[in-house]
Amino acid sequence: MALTTRFRRHLATGLTAVLSAGIGYVGVSYLTAPESTAPSFGLSSWPEGEAATFLATKGARDLASGVIPLTLLVTGHRRALGWALVAEALVPALDAALILATKGSTKAALGVHGATAAAVLGTGVLLLTEPATGPAVDSARA
Fold first, then answer.
1. C-alpha separations of 14 from 18, 28, 55, 62, 133 in Å
2. Which residues of the chain fall short of a pLDDT of 70?
3. Which pTM does this prediction carry?
4. How many CB atoms lie under 10 A from the CB of residue 63?
5. What whole-number distance in Å separates Cα of residue 140 and Cα of residue 70?
6. How many other C-beta atoms are found inside a 10 Å radius of the C-beta of residue 53?
7. pLDDT the model gives residue 45
8. Which residues contact 22 (CB under 8 A, 6 or more apart)?
9. Which of 37, 55, 59, 89 could form a disulfide with 121 if both were Cys (CB 3.0 to 4.6 A apart)?
């Protein structure tokens, strides 16, 4: 394996691990301390009372968004992981669009959600463009 290929593979693995752990942490934060986590999302207001249980739904979504790629990474399904990340990039992109549409924080929309969407999409593309590595290549490549 050439140094460039090895570097790309390690970079994609590292980015996947960091992005997955990060969104997983955000999910746990919404499940355990939603009132202190929610303001950083970027919306101008949050639901109150019983409607605030929505924050737990967001926490569950974010936790799953971190566990799915880690599962694919650990099981060695790198091509499927690439496609999953490309699809998951829609979540922060749509979060950014929602924040902008509701006149929330432009800084959070672009700086947090937009940057996350770009990082997740870029990591997915990096995985999808990895050269085949031999007999242990994910069966989806065949």
1. 6, 21, 29, 19, 18
2. 1-3, 133-142
3. 0.86
4. 19
5. 18
6. 10
7. 80
8. 66
9. 89
